[in-house]
Design a protein that fits this description.
By secondary structure, the protein is an alpha/beta fold. The chain has a single domain (2-8, 39-87, 111-294), classed as UDP-N-acetylmuramoyl-L-alanine:D-glutamate ligase (3-Layer(aba) Sandwich), CATH 3.40.1190.20. Helix content is 31%, strand content 26%. The chain is built from 8 helices and 13 strands. The strands form 2 sheets. It has a 9-stranded mixed β-sheet with strand order 5-4-1-8-9-10-11-12-13, sandwiched between helices. It has a 4-stranded mixed β-sheet with strand order 3-2-6-7. α1 (39-48) crosses α6. The two termini are 23 Å apart. Bound molecules: alpha-D-ribofuranose. Alpha-D-ribofuranose binds at residues 8, 10, 12, 37-39, 42, 92, 103, 105, 134, 242-243, 245-246, 282. Its EC number is 2.7.1.15. It is found in: Cytoplasm. It catalyses: D-ribose + ATP = D-ribose 5-phosphate + ADP + H(+). The active site is at residue 246.
Length: 296
């Protein structure tokens, strides 16, 4: 069965720099790279690299960045339902620091995207619907309603976080925040692993939506039989963590579509996301199914 990804497509402009400038300061950076990105595109590419039939639904501009993104994505094993508009393509300015990164996103064409309901006939054969919050919330909600009506399992990666997602929980089967987004979801600061895990148990007891919290180098936590299960991440030499969360989401959706159970899919996606951080650029290090299986 296949995966539908509704979401953003961006041109990532990655500037390598040793530190961020403070207000009023100009710094000389080291290097600039242009990568295809956007949480929607990243998640779709991660799924497609495992040979899962994947449709990406979204929008770019008619500008040079939009054309470049489409050309690159046509080389992936993806079914593209990507429209073009006169509004500029989404851009992410990514400051790549030695051990971290800082990102500013200009949504552009992503924010203006609305679903062509006729085109969703192509969703009829799918089993999994995956989206995030880098497109308009109204479009996220409509996508969830359409997916639910077609009987798809719905997954939302609530990034970047917006509190409006709480209203949409009845339409969401699985939600996949990282630790920061989970704290925002529950409106409570979490200062230790113990607090995080207790909050996950409390939240899950109150909601029908299944919860997965991605925890970076610590791995991924979810709840099974009323207890926290944590799948550890692989320990690798980290080059760039941009898109690691997207890799997790795309692989998790792909593995569920392939028929694996929830825990197996979390494990597959955690290993794949760990492997993805060894190259610069969100999509550069996304692994194939064979590579992931070699590490399981
Ligand atoms: O999650 C990583 C992505 O966030 C980047 O590719 C960038 O485009 C931003 O949307």
């Amino acid at each position: 069965m296949s995966v539908i990804v509704l979401g953003s497509l961006n041109m990532d402009i990655v500037m390598k720099t040793n530190q961020l400038p403070v207000i009023g300061e100009t710094l000389l950076g080291e290097h600039v790279d242009y990568f295809i990105g956007g949480k929607g595109a990243n998640q779709a590419v991660a799924a497609a690299r495992t040979n899962t039939a994947t449709t990406l639904t979204g929008q770019v501009g008619t500008d040079a960045f939009g054309e470049k993104i489409l050309t690159a994505l046509k080389r992936e094993n993806l079914h593209l339902q990507v429209t073009q508009t006169a509004i500029p393509t989404g851009i992410a300015a990514i400051f790549k620091l030695p051990n971290d990164n800082a990102i500013v996103v200009l949504p552009g064409a992503n924010a203006d995207f609305t679903i062509d309901v006729k085109a969703t006939n192509a969703w009829d054969d799918a089993s999994i619907f995956l989206t995030q919050l880098e497109i308009s919330l109204a479009t996220v909600q409509e996508g969830l309603q359409l997916a639910k009506a077609k009987g798809l399992t719905t997954i939302v990666n609530p990034a970047p976080f917006h509190s409006a997602i709480v209203e949409m929980l009845p339409l969401i089967d699985i939600i996949t925040p990282n630790e920061t987004e989970f704290a925002q979801l529950i409106g409570q600061e979490l200062t230790s692993d113990k607090e995080l895990e207790a909050a996950m148990l409390t939240w899950s007891a109150q909601h029908a939506t299944r919860l997965i919290v991605t925890r970076g180098s610590q791995g991924t936590s979810f709840i099974a039989n009323n207890a926290i299960q944590t799948v550890p991440a692989l320990s690798v030499a980290v080059v760039d963590t941009t898109g690691a969360g997207d890799t997790f989401n795309g692989l998790f959706a792909a593995e569920l579509a392939a028929g694996s159970n929830f825990a197996q899919a979390v494990r597959f996606a955690t290993i794949g996301a760990s492997l993805s951080v060894q190259k610069l650029g969100a999509q550069s290090g996304m692994p194939s199914r064979e590579t992931i299986l070699q590490h399981m």
